[in-house]
Design brief:
The chain is an alpha/beta fold and about 260 residues long. The chain has a single domain (about 5-260), classed as Spore Coat Polysaccharide Biosynthesis Protein SpsA, Chain A. The chain has helices at about 50-60, 75-80, 100-110, 110-115, 130-135, 190-210, 215-220, 245-260, and strands spanning about 5, 20-25, 45, 50, 65-70, 90-95, 120, 125, 145, 160, 165-170, 180-190, 230, 240.
Amino acid sequence: MNEPASRDAAGPGAARELTAIILAAGVARRLAPLTDHTQKSLLPVGGRAILARMLDALHAVGVRHVVIVVGHCADQVRALAATAPLGMTIECIDNPAYQKGSSLSLYCARDVIRRRPTLIMDADVVFPREFLRRLVASPAAQAFLIDEGFADTGEEVKIYVQGGRVIALGKKVVPPAWDRVGEGVGFFTCGPDAGRELIGLLEQVIEDSQGICEYEDALHLLVSRQRVEAVGVTGLPWTEVDFAEDLHRAHSVVFPAIARLEGT
């Protein structure tokens, strides 16, 4: 584990004292050759790296402590982390098995998840700050962001809600009944009690899959054991960047819409 890079004193009233855990370790082969020698989260959108925009958004909503799990092109991520907004403390944790599933990346941050309320984030999302405002303002100890206006292509992690509680999530999981369904944005808040259970479930799915599974497999198990709620962001502009067409859409459609929304 690397020493945290302090960026001056933390600002007042960090959001529920959340620690953000950003997963930025993967190789992103579906975006090759753009990611052959660049971490996906460092690809520019609107003239700035996706990860830089994410750190700015966290700072804007009062999150002052950030852990970044690194692997592919880790030195590039560390260099960007050193330019984080003043008042943020950034810590980078290495995932030596970053070419396997994201479950291993999240497991690398287990000590943080056990001890503190956390905001777990995929590093490849282009989004408006309103996403984080809604999520950190939620009184729920555990919550996902969901977009109910999605088009189901089979690539989306779908989150199912019944009676105000998340009951299932995954790309192929379909429960017998539900009230609402939306695409998961890839952002999840988790209290330490649920976090400790999540670590055990990560250990279970990692062992069952030899480390090639995604962390959502553990979250699917968690929602049957802990109350998890859903915070809606339907109608707001955003995209996950998995393919070249996603990156093009981020440049041409999503970022301009965010800029109009935020007046930038």
